[in-house]
């Protein structure tokens, strides 16, 4: 790490702490040449390989945008979408891999979206699991019924209750 003051090519780490977001490390450094101190922030970068082969940085906003479309007309708030995007990023980071296919990000969204809203989950899954027929929807619905997740409570009713 070059000193920002004298451009000396080395520095000594004095203190390291996890930043407030928990996803980066804040390091306090000192230059052995000029003695001045400075702070650096280190984060692990996540990159996404799109279908076209283009590589771009992971974006929570893009996750929210894609999920927002599936949640159209559903009782899902922007705050819910922000939490979902954060959960997706945390689960992707926890894998220890730095580069993902866009489809893998879509698949990582599914379990979090299922907990949030089952209808939005089905809409999103139909794209990322490449549903080709009504039978695919039927099997996804049967899977939801066979393994119901904890129902979210909004407005005093269970969102996962369905009339049969």
From TrEMBL:
Keyword presence, Transferase: no
Pfam families for the chain: ATP-cone, Zn_ribbon_NrdR
Record has Ribosomal protein as a keyword: no
GO terms, biological process: negative regulation of DNA-templated transcription
Organism this protein belongs to: Leucobacter chromiiresistens
Name of this protein: Transcriptional repressor NrdR
Its job: Negatively regulates transcription of bacterial ribonucleotide reductase nrd genes and operons by binding to NrdR-boxes.
Species classification: Bacteria, Bacillati, Actinomycetota, Actinomycetes, Micrococcales
Keywords: ATP-binding, DNA-binding, Metal-binding, Nucleotide-binding, Repressor, Transcription, Transcription regulation, Zinc, Zinc-finger
GO molecular function ontology, one term from the record: DNA binding
């Amino acid at each position: 790490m070059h000193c920002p003051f004298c451009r000396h090519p080395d520095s000594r780490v004095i203190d390291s702490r996890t930043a407030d977001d928990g996803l980066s490390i804040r390091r306090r450094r000192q230059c052995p040449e000029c003695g001045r101190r400075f702070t650096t922030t280190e984060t692990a970068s996540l990159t996404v390989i799109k279908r076209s082969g283009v590589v771009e940085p992971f974006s929570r906003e893009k996750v929210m945008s894609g999920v927002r479309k599936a949640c159209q007309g559903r009782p899902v708030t922007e705050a819910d979408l922000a939490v979902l995007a954060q959960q997706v990023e945390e689960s992707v980071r926890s894998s220890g891999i730095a580069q993902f296919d866009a489809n893998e990000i879509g698949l990582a969204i599914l379990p979090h979206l299922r907990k949030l809203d089952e209808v939005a989950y089905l809409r999103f899954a139909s794209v990322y699991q490449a549903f080709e027929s009504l039978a695919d929807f039927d099997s996804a619905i049967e899977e939801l019924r066979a393994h119901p997740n904890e129902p979210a409570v909004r407005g005093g009713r269970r969102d996962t209750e369905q009339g049969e």
